[in-house]
Amino acid sequence: MYLEDRQRELTEAMDTQGLWPADSPWVRRAILDTVPRHDFAPDQLWTWNGRDQYVPVDRGRDPDRWADHVYAGPEDSAITQIMDGLPSSSLSCVAVVADMLDSLMLEPGHRVLEVGTGAGWNAGLLAARAGAGKATSVEVDAELADTARARLTAAGFDVAVHTGDGNAGWPAAAPYDRVIATYAVDEIPWTWIEQTRPGGRLVVPWGRLGHVALTVADDGKSATGWVQGLGMFMPSRGTDQGREYHAIRGDGPPDRTVRVERDLRPLADVHLVFALRVSHPDIRITTEDTGEGLTVRLHDGDSSWATATTDQTGTVAAYEGGPRHLLAEVDAGRRHWEERGSPGLWDFGMTVAPDGQHVWSGTADAGPYMP
Fold first, then answer.
1. What pLDDT, on the 0 to 100 scale, is given for residue 83?
2. How far lies 113's CA from each of 77, 145, 278, 295, 313, in Å?
3. pLDDT above 90: residue 310
4. Residue 371's pLDDT is what?
5. Using CA atoms, how far apart are residues 368 and 338, in angstroms rounded to an integer?
6. What does the alpha-carbon distance between residue 282 and residue 298 come to, in Å, rounded to a whole number?
7. Which residue, 21, 42, 125, 219, is most buried by CB atoms nearer than 10 A?
C-alpha cells in the first residue's frame, strides 16, 4: 500500500508542476500504468550518506524507504549501481524521462534504438509506444543487460537487448526512425546519426547539462536541432568524471582573495548557466541560497576551485585555489553571453557533421557560439 501511495504522490507532483507533456499524452499513461517504475527497480538501491559514501537501501529490510527512493520527487533519480564509489547506473528522474520521450516524437511502428539499457525501464516505455519487435537497446554492462532483458520479458515487452558499446550503436538493425541515449556524451557519435534514416530524430543528453533533439538531414550528411531541457545524466562508462569540489578544495587556506565587482545572483539563472556550459565546458557551477545570501562554488574537476559568497547588502567575499582564475573566466563567459543578447536555454542548438559538432545560438547558420 505504501508503494502505491508514493506513486500517487509523485503523480500529483508531476500534475501540480505541469510536467506531463501535453503533446504526448501516451507518456503519462505509459509511466503510470503500462510500465510501472517499481517493476524495473532492483531490490537494492543506493543513497548518499551525507558524508563520505553511498550506502545501500534494501527492499527486503526497509521496503518503505526503498519505495521512497523509487518514487521520490519528479526531479530525483534512483541510483541502481555503484562502481568505484560512484554512481554508474540509475532510474532517471521521471520529469526528464517524460521530457525526453516527448522530444523524441516516437510513433507506433517506429524502429527505435536506445543506447544505455540500464534497468530496462526506459526500453519498456519505448516498446509500449513503438510496438513489439520495434525497440533495440544496447548496454555495455553484461550483467545489467541480462537483468534488463529478464525484466522486460517478464513485463511482456519484446525488446532486443544487446551487450555492446553504446557509442557504436547497433548497425545490424539499422536504419532507425528514432535514437535515444540514456547517458551523456560531450561529442555525439557520428555512428548514431549514420544509423538513423534521413528525417529521423535523435534525443541525446549532452555533457553534464542539457539534452538536445536532432533531425537528420535529407542527404544524411548532418543532423541539426535544438536544446530541449536541462536534464543531467551520467557519462558513458569509462569516462573520467574528474575530481569533486571538496577533493580539490581540501582543508587548507585558499591561495588568494579575489575582488568581485559584479552581482553574483545571475549565476543562479539557468539560462546563463547553460551558456557558460557552452563557453566554458570544463567549469562546474553550483549555487546555494542560504537565506542570507548566495554562495557560488566553481571547480574544473582537476586542480582549481573558487568560492564566492554575497550577503543581503551585496558584499562579496571570494577566494580561489589552483592555477586557474575561475571567477575571471566565468565573468568573461558571462560578458560574452550578455554581448550576444543574453540568449535563453532554448535559443541554443547544435549541428553535427562527420568532422565534428558545434553549438550555435539563434540560427544554425550563425556559426559557433564559443567566444
1. 87
2. 22, 15, 27, 42, 53
3. no
4. 67
5. 16
6. 10
7. 125
**From CA 215, how far away is CA 224, in angstroms rounded?**
5
pLDDT one-digit tens code per residue, 88-146:
899 999 999 999 999 999 999 999 999 999 999 999 999 999 999 999 999 999 999 99
Q: Which residues contact 194 (CB under 8 A, 6 or more apart)?
A: 169, 174, 220
Q: Which residue has the higher pLDDT, 328 or 209?
A: 328
Q: What is the pLDDT of residue 51?
A: 76
pTM for this predicted structure? 0.92
CA–chain centroid gap for 369, Å, is 21
Average pLDDT over residues 83-87: 84
In a 10 Å sphere around its CB, with 0-12 CB exposed, 13-18 middle and 19+ buried, how is residue 240 labelled? exposed
Report phi then psi at 312, rounded to 5: -70, -15
Residues with a known catalytic role:
92
User: 212: closest CA among 197, 194, 198, 192?
Assistant: 192
d(CA 101, CA 202): 11
Q: Model confidence over 95-104: pLDDT tens digits?
A: 999 999 999 9
Q: Give the three cell numbers for residue 124.
A: 519498456
Asked if 99 and 28 touch (Cβ cutoff 8 Å), the reply is: no
Q: How far apart are CA 220 and CA 198, in angstroms?
A: 5
**Cell numbers of 348, please?**
541554443
In the block, cell 535563453 appears at: 344
Q: Give start and end residues of each alpha helix (H) in 40-141.
A: 63-70, 94-104, 121-130
Write down the pLDDT at residue 235: 65
| pLDDT above 80 (res 237) | no
Q: How many CA atoms lie within 13 A of 27 on its CB side?
A: 23
Q: Which residues pair with 225 in a beta bridge?
A: 214, 350
